[in-house]
Design goal:
The chain is of the alpha+beta class. The chain contains eleven helices and eleven strands. 33% of the residues lie in helices and 30% in strands. The chain starts with a strand and ends with a strand. Bound molecules: cytidine-5'-monophosphate.
Length: 298
């Protein structure tokens, strides 16, 4: 009997990202607000025999080998569970890569959540979170989705219960920013004080103009210095009517926030040269809804 499961692997943006300090282990402690969008990749998981793991990627040049985080997520589960089976992974890739939108991390989290259901094995939440962090600093967030405040490398997570009624225009010029290089170019040596991003976001719901003072991305200056085109895009987002614009993650996607979907779409027409996408903020995942979507066929 083949078990088949289709999962959404949403993109994220960072509503503020502060690099607090460099740690002895080489990682950096962060203070960031993650928020998933209602746009992303689609992942189909199907059981197969012999513990074989195969991966088919539609819509992008992405290796289907062990360099692919989704494949590594499946292998990490197999290492832990002797009764894990084989898995055929199909990724419909819509999230641009190396773009600060968490595409690879989201795909990996979808496999971590979905493969145990396909195989009929029970993986406890603490083990799942540990496997997620071993795959990448952003992966634990995608196990929950929604809006969350993150500390440490990104794995100390606290849900933020806030409804964001805004519309997001994503603009990506196809520049691939390597995250380690972005950290290196920021060159954080001393300590930085964490600001209250949750308060800044709440205040922004009442008065959008306060967001510019409250939500910054510490990567932005250094990455914009490397790729000045990103600075032009940010200015252009404001000129096109965004009430707030910022870089997501270590770039290269710039996002603008708008009051209405029509405003975001109209602004998008100013960026015809680039990849653009209008999205809304997405809801947190519910493991119950993931489990109920499993499809059993003989
Ligand atoms: O965890 P992830 O594989 O996404 O990290 C990629 C690289 O980014 C790390 O090797 C490290 O150089 C840098 N990084 C960091 N601090 C973090 C997250 C990532 O220095 N919190």
């Amino acid at each position: 009997m083949t078990q088949r499961l289709e999962l959404a692997a949403p993109a994220k943006i960072n509503l503020g990202l502060e690099i607090l300090r460099r740690r002895p282990d080489g990682f950096h402690d962060l203070n960031t607000l993650f928020a998933t969008l209602d746009f992303g990749d689609t992942i189909v998981l199907e059981s197969q025999g012999d513990r074989a793991i195969t991966c088919h990627v539609l819509g992008a040049e992405l290796a289907a080998d062990d360099s692919n985080l989704a494949v590594r997520a499946a292998r990490a589960l197999q290492r832990q569970f002797a009764d894990a089976g084989g898995l055929a992974i199909t990724i419909d890739k819509r999230i641009p890569m190396g773009a600060g939108l968490g595409g690879g991390s989201s795909d990996a989290a979808a496999v971590l959540m979905g493969a145990p259901l396909v195989w009929g094995i029970d993986v406890g939440a603490p083990l799942l979170r540990g496997l997620a962090l071993a795959l990448g600093s952003d992966v634990p967030f995608f196990l929950m989705g929604g809006v969350a405040l993150a500390g440490s490398r990104g794995e100390r997570l606290e849900r933020v219960d806030i409804d964001l009624p805004w519309h997001v225009l994503l603009v990506n010029p196809g520049i691939h920013v390597a995250t380690p290089a972005a950290f290196a170019s920021v060159g954080r040596t001393g300590e930085r004080t964490a600001s209250d991003l949750r308060a800044a976001l709440s205040a922004g719901l009442a008065d959008r103009t306060t967001l510019r003072a409250g939500l910054v991305n510490d990567f932005e200056e250094a990455v914009v210095a490397m790729y000045p085109e990103l600075g032009h895009i940010k200015r252009h987002l404001y000129e096109a009517g965004a009430f707030f614009a910022l870089m997501s993650g270590s770039g290269s996607t710039m996002f603008g926030l708008f009051e209405t979907r029509e405003d975001a779409e109209r602004a998008g027409t100013h960026f015809a040269r680039y990849w653009t996408k209008v999205a809304a903020f997405g809801a947190a995942h519910s493991s119950a809804s993931i489990a109920s979507s499993i499809d059993r066929s003989e």
